[in-house]
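Record 1 of the preview.
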Amino acid sequence: MRYGWGVPLPSSDTFTYTGAPDPAKWDQAGECWPGNAGNGQRCASHTTVGGGFLRESGDAAGRTGWLANTTNQKYGRWEARARMTATDPTATGNPYHPVLLLWPQSERWPQDGEDDYAETHIGADGIDAFIHHPTPSGVVQDHYSTPVELTSWHNYAIEWQPGHIRGYLDGVQWFDDTDPAAQPPGPMHGTIQLDDSTGGTQQPAHLDVQWFRVYAP
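->
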C-alpha cells in the first residue's frame, strides 16, 4: 500500500462471487427493518453480489440496502472503491443518501461517535465527511467536503490513529481531524449504506462497491 497500511484483514472483500454477501465478512439487514431515522426499510434482498461488485439498490418505496463489516477495532484503516448513481436519472423522487462510515461496536450513539468518511446524496457534485462526537453543548459534527464525480469509480478511505482521523480520496488526503474530542472511545466497524433520509417517494438508485478493505492499527 502507498501508505504502508500492510495486508488487508480477512474480513476485507473483493466481491468476486455471486449471491448474498459473505456472512463471515458481513452482517446483513433483516428482511425488512426500519431504515435511517425510521425512513424507508433496510432489506437484505436489496444487497447482492455479482459481476465483480456489491450492489445496494434503493427503490421508489424506500426499500434499500445496508451492510456492516464483522471486524471491530480501535484504530486502523478502511477503504472502499465505490460509485453512486441514479438507476434512471429521469425518474422523480427524493435522492438516496449513500454513506461509507465507521460505527461503534457498542451501538451507543452519540456517546461513542460516528465517522462518516464519504457521505453525499445521489446527483451531488461532491462528498462530505462528518465526524460526529458529543460535547457538553450537544452533538458536534466536524465537517469537510471535496468535489468528486460520484458516478465514476473512486477510492474512499479513512485512517484512524491516536490524535488523527484522516480522509483520503483516490489516495490523496483531503482532511485531517485532530480534535481530541472527536476520537471515538472504543472499537468501530465499517458499514456500507444507501439511506432513505427523507421518507416519501425516492428516486431509484444504487451504490456499487468493487472492493472493501480493512487494515489493522
